[in-house]
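Annotated sample (chain length 287).
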Amino acid sequence: MQDYSPMHVAWLRYFSALVTAFVAILLIQRKPNRFVTPPMQVLQTKIFLWVGLMALTTFFFSPLLQYVGLAKSTSTANTLIVAMEPLFAALLAWALIAEPWKKVQGLAFCFALAGFLLLSNLQPGDWSSLANFQAGNLFFLAAMPMEAMYSIVSRKVGGRVGALTLYLAASLLGFLLFSCYLIFFQSGLPAFSQIHWKNFGAILWMGPLGTAITYIYWTVALEKASVAAVSLTLFVQPILGAFVGALFLKESLSTWQFVGALSILFALSLETYFELRKGKPHVANNK
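Output written by the structure step:
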């Protein structure tokens, strides 16, 4: 995607994801299913306010902040800071939809946060490593509560609005806002003439696979599990990023980074064990 600016890459990502969602609705709406609900249901005042909040945060401000940050920092830093999203999600779930935070979940988050810090190469007693953070990382960090709002809204209205309908409505509103921003404040929309087969493969990976399918599946998961439980799985991302970097970019993990990866995996195991023992997950009051 070197032929496009970061903002244009973001636009192509969400455009291809929207096309995927539209095609999916056309294919499956003929038969009754829980993924698609009538569009008028989204226009109900209370639901539309939540959908609008999701559009403004997750599908407008979040990509804007992340791609500005990417221009000022590195993709590796982005991968590591994304692991902070579960903390914001759990906090917002407690503040906005009164979802309780169990002691075991708090313990799991402590281990996960400790693992994140170690994986970020912040070694115990070595505060000089903080100097490695760049200004762009602040944009990444500011984007995390924006991303977390997708989980909050999915948990709030999921079940009343189909997962596919919810994603399509919110992403369409956010996409229109993002397009207006590019037209009026940037260099305009990207040129499709620059797309070649390598770019097409990257767009397919980022849009239909990495955005549409994953966001819709995330909404379905949040219909049955708490925000804290589902969001905790995001801590796996920095582990995968670190190991992919080690495999393809010949980047090595230090001893402390390896300990951090183990700490995150332990947190995931602890949370999973807690959810299985409960038998029936907590269901938030969506009324």
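Annotation: The CA atoms of residues 275 and 281 lie 7 Å apart.
Annotation: Residues 280-287 have pLDDT under 50 and may be disordered.
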